[in-house]
Structure formats: structure tokens, C-alpha cells
What we know:
Elements: H1 8-11, H2 14-47, H3 51-65, H4 69-82, H5 89-114, H6 118-126, H7 131-161, H8 173-184, H9 187-226
Helix pairs in contact: 2-3, 2-5, 2-7, 2-8, 3-5, 4-5, 5-7, 6-7, 7-9, 8-9
Amino acid sequence: MFPVLVFSDVWAQADALLNGLLQTVWISAVAILLGVVIGTLCAIARTGRNRILSVLAGAYVEAIRNTPFLVQLFLVFFGLPGIGLRISAVSAGLIALTVNLGAYSAEIIRAGIEATHKSQIEAGASLGLTRRDILVHVVLLPALERVWPALSSQFVLTMLASSILSQISVEELTSAGALIDSRTYRSMEIYIVLAGLYLGLTFLFRLSFGLVGKLLFARRRAVAVRR
Length: 227
């Protein structure tokens, strides 16, 4: 006989869940914004002519992609105070998420940049475009458009990875759920609710990134046509 699930104790502490959800969204959004900036710069460095920058960016990417996120998080949260840099749990989580996403997005964006044919760059130069205009309008924006679905998936994974921040007491969604579990002992109910909330967040994030992609790249194509 299946046990009876009682969700009333969980919903009685909906405020804690809401606060945790908002914290998850906020941390994820900031980490995604900063991470994609870092990833773009690293992708440019890895595909550029400066050998030193390329090697440094490559070393960073390989170091992050080949170590567990939990170890990276602990390195920031427990390691930095050891050298005199004391930061809050939220700051440590934000740094770890940003650095992690930066490495993964760098490889995705690099693939998009390397798909740009040299003839397009040469055509831009023949039209009198500056090096900056070629980089932005001929290389980078088309590259981002090519890899946007893959980037969007990585953004969602970053949001889901934010649940690991509960290990350093960041009061995000998973941490809120664990707190409610310790108060109510309704483990099955609370984790069913958490799974549903993460599924909802995943859907909303994918929808949002899809809309952002359409607006961003539709505008880019319109500008290109006017030129």
C-alpha cells in the first residue's frame, strides 16, 4: 500500500520556497550574464593570433572542464579564506558558477567562431569595415547565432547546478527545501515539489532564452539588410 502524501505542511512554508526560488533565479541570471562575457573573451583569445592569450585561455578551459563543479565551489569558498580573501557564501557561489560557465561557454562559442569562413572576413575587409566591425558583425554575432541553442542548454545546466550551492549554505531553492524537510519530515513531498519547481524553471529559462535569441538575431539581420 502506497503511503499517503500530505503537501499541506510544505505549502505552509511556501514563503521559504519562494525566497529560495528567487535567489536561484537571481544567482543564475547574474552567473549566466558574467559567464557568457568570460566565455566570449576566452573564445576570442583561443581563436586569435596571440599565442600567450590562447594558451592561457586554453589552460583555464581545460582546468575547469576536467574538474568537478563541487571541487571548484569548495576551492573558492574554503580556499580563498586560506589566502586572506574572505567572501560570503553567495559571492563564492556566484564566482564558482560564473567561472564554470565561462569555460563551457568558451568552447561552444569557439566552435561557432571557427565555423566562420575566411572568405566572409575577407569580404568584410574589402568593404572597408574596421577590425572591430568585422569581429563583432562578421564573426562574433553570426557565431553566437549558430550556437545559441547549445548556449541556451548550457545556461539551463548552470541554473540546475546552482542547487549545489546548498552545500555551502546559500539559501537557494534546494537549501530552502532541505530546511523545510528538516522541519516537517515530509521528504517525499518536499522533493516532489522541488523537482516540479526546477522543471518549471527549466521551461521558463528555455522560453526566455529562445525569445532573447529571436529578438537579438532578428535585429542583427535587420541591421545587416539595411547596410
